[in-house]
Protein backbone atom coordinates (compact mmCIF):
# COMPACT_ATOMS: atom_id res chain seq x y z
CA UNK A 1 0.00 0.00 0.00
CA UNK A 2 1.66 3.23 -1.15
CA UNK A 3 0.45 6.75 -0.57
CA UNK A 4 1.25 9.54 -2.97
CA UNK A 5 2.33 12.99 -1.79
CA UNK A 6 4.28 14.25 1.18
CA UNK A 7 5.68 11.92 3.87
CA UNK A 8 4.03 12.12 7.28
CA UNK A 9 5.82 14.25 9.90
CA UNK A 10 5.93 12.39 13.21
CA UNK A 11 7.22 15.25 15.35
CA UNK A 12 6.40 18.72 16.64
CA UNK A 13 9.03 21.43 16.94
CA UNK A 14 10.11 22.72 20.32
CA UNK A 15 12.53 25.31 21.70
CA UNK A 16 14.99 24.85 24.55
CA UNK A 17 14.42 27.55 27.17
CA UNK A 18 17.09 26.53 29.67
CA UNK A 19 17.46 24.34 32.71
CA UNK A 20 15.13 23.83 35.65
CA UNK A 21 16.26 26.26 38.33
CA UNK A 22 15.42 28.05 41.51
CA UNK A 23 16.71 31.41 42.66
CA UNK A 24 20.18 30.12 43.53
CA UNK A 25 20.33 26.53 42.25
CA UNK A 26 20.30 25.21 38.69
CA UNK A 27 19.44 21.61 37.84
CA UNK A 28 21.23 20.73 34.59
CA UNK A 29 19.68 17.28 34.42
CA UNK A 30 16.23 18.71 33.67
CA UNK A 31 15.67 20.93 30.61
CA UNK A 32 12.71 23.21 29.95
CA UNK A 33 11.15 22.88 26.49
CA UNK A 34 8.46 25.06 24.92
CA UNK A 35 6.41 23.00 22.45
CA UNK A 36 5.08 24.87 19.43
CA UNK A 37 1.30 25.26 19.50
CA UNK A 38 0.95 24.26 23.17
CA UNK A 39 -0.18 27.14 25.35
CA UNK A 40 -1.73 25.64 28.48
CA UNK A 41 -1.02 23.07 31.15
CA UNK A 42 -3.96 20.95 29.96
CA UNK A 43 -2.53 20.71 26.42
CA UNK A 44 0.81 19.41 27.74
CA UNK A 45 -0.98 16.31 29.07
CA UNK A 46 -0.85 14.72 25.58
CA UNK A 47 2.95 15.06 25.36
CA UNK A 48 3.81 13.42 28.70
CA UNK A 49 6.04 10.40 28.07
CA UNK A 50 6.79 11.39 24.46
CA UNK A 51 10.37 11.15 23.17
CA UNK A 52 12.40 14.29 22.48
CA UNK A 53 15.33 14.43 20.04
CA UNK A 54 18.11 17.03 20.20
CA UNK A 55 19.95 16.77 16.86
CA UNK A 56 23.46 18.15 16.29
CA UNK A 57 25.80 18.06 13.32
CA UNK A 58 29.02 16.07 13.65
CA UNK A 59 32.23 18.02 13.10
CA UNK A 60 34.13 14.97 11.81
CA UNK A 61 32.86 13.82 8.42
CA UNK A 62 31.23 10.41 8.78
CA UNK A 63 31.18 10.46 12.58
CA UNK A 64 30.65 7.25 14.55
CA UNK A 65 27.84 5.66 12.56
CA UNK A 66 28.71 7.11 9.16
CA UNK A 67 26.07 9.85 9.53
CA UNK A 68 26.49 13.60 9.64
CA UNK A 69 24.24 13.95 12.70
CA UNK A 70 24.15 12.91 16.34
CA UNK A 71 20.99 12.59 18.43
CA UNK A 72 20.56 13.00 22.17
CA UNK A 73 17.28 11.34 23.16
CA UNK A 74 15.12 12.50 26.05
CA UNK A 75 11.64 12.14 27.45
CA UNK A 76 8.92 14.60 28.49
CA UNK A 77 8.51 14.19 32.26
CA UNK A 78 5.90 16.72 33.36
CA UNK A 79 4.49 20.21 32.84
CA UNK A 80 6.30 23.30 34.08
CA UNK A 81 4.04 26.20 34.95
CA UNK A 82 0.78 26.94 33.16
CA UNK A 83 1.95 28.20 29.73
CA UNK A 84 2.71 24.97 27.89
CA UNK A 85 6.34 24.51 28.96
CA UNK A 86 7.43 20.95 29.81
CA UNK A 87 10.33 19.44 31.75
CA UNK A 88 12.46 16.89 29.90
CA UNK A 89 15.25 14.57 30.96
CA UNK A 90 17.85 13.58 28.37
CA UNK A 91 20.23 10.61 28.22
CA UNK A 92 23.09 13.12 28.43
CA UNK A 93 22.46 16.59 29.85
CA UNK A 94 22.04 19.24 27.17
CA UNK A 95 25.05 21.54 26.73
CA UNK A 96 24.65 25.25 27.56
CA UNK A 97 25.15 26.13 23.86
CA UNK A 98 21.86 24.38 23.12
CA UNK A 99 19.76 26.99 24.96
CA UNK A 100 17.62 28.76 22.39
CA UNK A 101 18.05 25.83 20.01
CA UNK A 102 15.48 23.48 18.52
CA UNK A 103 14.35 19.99 19.44
CA UNK A 104 11.90 17.56 17.91
CA UNK A 105 9.13 16.28 20.18
CA UNK A 106 8.15 12.94 18.67
CA UNK A 107 4.51 11.88 18.60
CA UNK A 108 5.40 8.44 19.98
CA UNK A 109 5.14 6.40 22.14
CA UNK A 110 1.36 6.64 22.14
CA UNK A 111 -0.54 6.54 25.44
CA UNK A 112 -3.96 6.09 23.83
Throw out a few tags for this protein.
112 residues, six-stranded antiparallel barrel, single chain
Describe the structure.
- With 112 residues, the protein is mostly beta strands.
- The protein is built from one helix and six strands, in the order ββαββββ.
- Strands 1-2-5-4-3-6 form a six-stranded antiparallel barrel.
- The longest helix has 4 residues, at 41-44.
- It starts with 10 loop residues before the first strand and ends in a 6-residue tail after the last strand.
- The mean pLDDT is 94.
Lay out the secondary structure.
Layout: E1 11-21, E2 26-35, H1 41-44, E3 51-57, E4 69-80, E5 85-90, E6 102-106
Antiparallel strand pairs: 1-2, 1-6, 2-5, 3-4, 3-6, 4-5
Amino acid sequence: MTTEGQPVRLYVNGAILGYKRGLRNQYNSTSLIKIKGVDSKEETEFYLGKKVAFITKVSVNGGKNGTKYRVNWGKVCRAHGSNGVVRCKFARDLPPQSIGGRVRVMLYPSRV
